[in-house]
Amino acid sequence: MTAKPLAIASRYGELGYAVFPCHSILDEKCTCGKKACKSPGKHPLTVNGVKDATVDPGQITKWWTEHPTANIAIATGKISGITVLDVDLKSRGLESLEAIQSKYGKFPDTPLVLTGGGGFHYYFRYVNLPNKANAFKEYPGLDIRSNGGYVIAPYSNHISGRAYEWEAESTLTKVPLASFPEALLGLFREQSELKEEEDTPGVDVEAVFEGIPKGQRDQEIFRYACRLRAQDRDRNEAEVLILAAADRCSPPFPHKEAAEKLASAWKYPPSPDLVAELTEDTIAPLITQDERTVTIEWTAKQVRAVAKTLKEHSDGRITGQLTLTSTLGGKSRPLRSALFNFAALRSRTSLVKDLQSKMPGLNWDTMVEYLCAIVTEHVQGGAQVEIVTPEDDVKPNEYMLWPFLVKDHPIIIFGQEGTGKSYLALFLANIALSNSPVAKKLGLRVDSVPQHLLYLDWEGTVDVLRERTAKLAAGMMLENVPIMYRPCGRSLFSDIDAIKAVLPHKPDLVIIDSLILACGGDAVDARSVGEFFMALHSFGCTSLLIGHSPKHTAGTSASSVFGSSVFQFLARSIWEIRTDQEEHGDVIKVGLVHKKINYGPRERPVGFDITFKDDMTLITPGDLSSMPSVDSARPLSFRVLSYLREQGKSTTRDIAEALDAPQNHVRSNLSRLVKRDKVIKMDNKHWAALVTEDDPW
Question: Over the stretch 378-400, which tens digit does the pLDDT of each residue have?
Fold first, then answer.
C-alpha cells in the first residue's frame, strides 16, 4: 500500500463505509488454509467475515493493529450505501461492458476503482440487489456486489504485484455516487422474470459455492435451500445438494447447520414466490431511493410502486404521491395514483381493498405493509451521529466567488423592482463559471470554479436568458459557458423530483429566480419557506436566491427580504441591492449592502455600474460615495459615527436633523457607541468620535 492501511481503513470508516480486514498477499499463508489459494488477498480475517464490517474507529484500529498489512474490504449493500459493478477481464467482462455501453449509453460519472487484476469496480448508490456473480447471462464477467457482499478497496495489494487504486480523480470524496444504471436494472429484471426451473436444475454446485467465505455462507445456503423447495425437489435429493454446497464453502459450512437450513425451507409449501418471500434473491423486491422518492418493484409479481414528494408532518403523518402500476402481459397498467398517508392504518386498509378488487391473487396486505415500512424508514432514517471534539480540525469558510457566493450554502440577493437583481445574479454566476480575469478588476475573487450552473426560472423565458447571457459575455469578454435552464410553474418543493429527473448533470450552482414564486406564491408562510429550503438542500450545492424588498421598508436601513423571517434564519449570507439610475437611462449605479452572514463579519458595501448597450452589457466598479441610497441602507449607528467623524463634534439634535432620524433613536445608538468605545460625550451637549479608522459593519 502507498499509505498505512490503518489510516486508509479509518478514512473509509469516517466516510460511512463499513470495512473489515482481509488476508494480505504480503503474508505468507492465506487464511483459507488451502495450499493453492484461488483468491489470495480476499479472504476475511474476522470470524464472521463481511457480517463484522463496521465504521467504529476503535474496532478498525484494533483490527489493523493486530494485522498491520491487512487488505481493506468495504462491505457493499445497504450497510455502506453502495452497490458495485465488478468488471472481471479474465471472464470477458471488458467485452460485456463495451457491448452494454455501446447499446445503452455510457455510465454516468461515478467513483471508479482500477483493480489489481486489471478490472474495474464501478461504485453506485445503493440499490436493493443481491450479491451475484455473472449477474447478466448474455454479458459474462459482470458481477454485482451488493447486499451481503464486499469488494477489496484501494489501496490494497493484489497478487499481480499491483495495488487497487482510484481512477484519476475518481474518488469517493471528489465524485458523487451515481444511481445504478437503468439499463443494468432492466437487464436484471428481465432475467428475474425467468422461471426458476431454468436456473437451478443444472446447478453446478462446485462453481456456485466455490470459496464462499464466512459471513456469506449462512445466507447463501438458505437461499439455495429455498430454491430447491420452490421447485418441489425430492427431500433426499435436496439434502445431497445442500451438503455438497456446504462442502464447497470456504471454510466448509457445518453439515448440521446446513441440514437445519434445509429443514427451515421445507416448513413452507413449494411456491414460485418462496424465495422472494423468505430471502433477498433475484425475485425479491428491487428498491431504489433518492432523497424524497422511493421505488419498489416486485418483479415476480410484475408490480411497481413509486412514492415521491415524501414529507413527514408535525402530527406524525407521512404523506406523498403514490403511484402503483402493473406490467402483466407486457403492458403498463395504472392501479392507483393519489396522495397517500403512509402512517395511517385506515389509508392502508382502503388501499389494500382497492388493489385486491383490481388485481386479485396477490398478497396485497404484506406488500402494502412492506411499502409503508420502507417509506417510513426512508423518511425517518435521518443522518448518522458524528462525534465532535475540541481537538477537531476546523474547516475554514470557503467561497466560490468572494465575497458573494459562499460555497455549498444558500445566499440571497434582494432589492426593489428594476434594481438589476437577475442581471447581477447571472453576472456573478458567469464570472465564477468562466473563472474570468475580470473578477480581479472588479474586486472579486474566484476561489472554486463551478462546472455546472442550473437556472430555475419562475419569472422569465429562455430567450430572455439567452439575450442577457450573450450581452454579458460580449461586454465582459466572458467564456461561452453552457447553462442548464428550466422554466418552472410549481413550487420547488412540489417540482424538485421532476427537475432532477431531467438534469444532464448534477449542478454545482443553482440560481432561483425568484423566491416568492419558488415558494408557491406564499413566501410569508413559514411552512412553505421551510419546504422550499428542504428541497433546495437536496441539490447539495451552492445556491443564489433572488428576492424582493417589501415596500413599507424600501429605502430604509430596516429593509429585509420580502416574506417569512425563515428566509433570514436559513440563508447563510444576504445582500441587498440599492440603485441610483442616471437620467439618460442606460446606466444603473448599483450598490450591494451586506445585511447578514453566519460566519464572520459583514463585508463592506460593493458598487457596480451596469451600462446597457444594444449589443452588450458592461459592468464596471462603481463609486459608492455618490449613492445616497447605499448610505441610507447602513445602520443608524454607522451613520451617526460617520457624521461625528466628519463634523468633529455635534449635539444630539443636530445629528438627528442631519440624518433625518428621531432623536430618541440617535440617543440609543450613541449609548451603544459609548459602550463600544467609539464615541465620547464632550460636555452636557456635544458628542465626538474616538476613532478615525473606518469600521466594517
Answer: 888 766 677 788 877 777 778 99
- Only one residue has cell 480486514, namely 21
Reported residue count of the chain is 697
Q: Are 363 and 356 in contact (CB under 8 A)?
A: no
Distance CA 242, CA 209 (A): 10
pLDDT in tens, 116-163: 888 899 999 998 888 888 888 788 889 999 988 899 999 898 887 788
Give the single-character DSSP code of 89. Answer: G
Tell me how crowded residue 662 is: count the other CB atoms within 10 A of its CB.
11
Cα–Cα distance for residue pair 412/385, rounded to 1 Å:
30
Which of 2, 4, 175, 18 lies closest to 81 in space, CA to CA? 18
Residue where the block lists cell 406564491: 521
Q: Which of 570, 572, 590, 571 lies closest to 582 in space, CA to CA? A: 590
Cell 427537475, residue? Answer: 499
Whole-angstrom distance, CA of residue 34 vs CA of residue 252: 12
Q: Which amino acid is at 205?
A: V
Where are the domains positioned within the chain?
5-179, 196-278, 286-380, 399-632, 637-689
Residues 6 or more apart whose Cβ sits within 8 Å of residue 574: 411, 412, 413, 414, 561, 568, 594, 595, 596, 597
List the beta bridge partners of residue 294.
289, 307
Q: Residue 476's closest CA among 611, 617, 625, 327? A: 617
Cβ atoms 496, 490 nearer than 8 A: no
Q: What is the DSSP letter of 521?
A: T
Sign, CA dihedral 328-329-334-335, equals: negative
Q: Which three cell numbers stand for residue 416?
A: 426593489
How far apart, in whole angstroms, are the C-alpha atoms of residue 212 and residue 245? 10
8 A C-beta contact, residue 368 and residue 352? yes
Q: Characterize the bridge pairing of strands 686-689 and 649-651.
A: antiparallel
Given phi > 0 = left and psi -120 to 50 = alpha, else beta, which region is 134? left
- Measured distance CA(98)–CA(331) in Å, rounded: 30
Asked if 196 and 275 touch (Cβ cutoff 8 Å), the reply is yes
* Residue type at 87 in one-letter notation: V
- Residue 10 in 3-state DSSP? helix
Q: Alpha carbon 95 to chain centroid distance?
A: 32
Span 484-543, pLDDT tens digits: 999 999 999 889 888 988 999 999 999 999 999 999 988 888 888 888 998 898 898 999
Burial-class residue 566 by CB neighbours within 10 Å (0-12, 13-18, 19+).
buried
Please give the single-letter amino acid code of residue 375.
V
More confident residue, 83 or 264: 83
Q: How many CB atoms lie within 10 A of CB 677?
A: 9
Side chain identity at residue 82, one-letter code: I
Inter-residue contact 456 to 510 (CB < 8 Å): yes
Nearest partner of 532 among 556, 496, 568, 500, judged by Cα: 496
CB 472 within 8 A of CB 612: no
As given in the structure block, the three cell numbers for residue 618 are: 458592461
CATH no. for 399-632 = 3.40.50.300
Q: Which three cell numbers stand for residue 270?
A: 413449494
CB atoms within 10 A of CB 684: 6
**What is the CATH architecture of 637-689?**
Orthogonal Bundle (1.10)
pLDDT of residue 616: 92
Long-range contacts of 223-228, Cβ-Cβ distance < 8 Å, separation of 24 or more = 223/275, 223/279, 223/281, 225/261, 225/262, 225/264, 225/265, 225/266, 226/265, 226/274, 226/275, 226/278, 226/279, 226/281, 227/196, 227/199, 227/200, 227/275, 227/281, 228/200, 228/262, 228/265
Residue 46 backbone dihedrals phi, psi, to 5 degrees: -100, 165
